[in-house]
Amino acid sequence: MFDDSDLNLVYQDPLFVDTDNLNFQYLSDSPCIDAGNPDLFDLDGTIRDIGANIFYNILLGDCNQDSTISILDIVFVINNCILGSNSDCSCSDVNSDGATNVLDVVNLINLVLEN
Description:
The protein is α+β, with helices and mostly antiparallel strands and 115 residues long. The chain has helices at 71-82, 102-114; strands spanning 16-18, 23-26. Among the domains are: 16-48, no CATH class; 71-113, no CATH class. The protein has a two-stranded antiparallel sheet with strand order 1-2. Helix 1 (71-82) packs antiparallel against helix 2. The longest helix has 13 residues, at 102-114. The radius of gyration is 18 Å and the shape is elongated.
């Protein structure tokens, strides 16, 4: 008999973003996130995810990485990603359209005003 108790198998929907369009990234509530080998860590420092993709536990818009979205993040996005040429603006694509632009700044302003 085969013992699969240490293989970290998932016997439920892995909750991919969009399988019809072959987007196998995980949704934020996927059972695969942080469910891999607890002795190994992903690049973001969390427990390994099951599968080839890494789910990064980041807060979009939190560009200064202080775990809150504030006016400081808006200033960062404008100075570094809109006016400047910062190569790492992945935190600033708040609307997830693949580009950092004024729409992301508007979304950040709305998030700050909501809090």
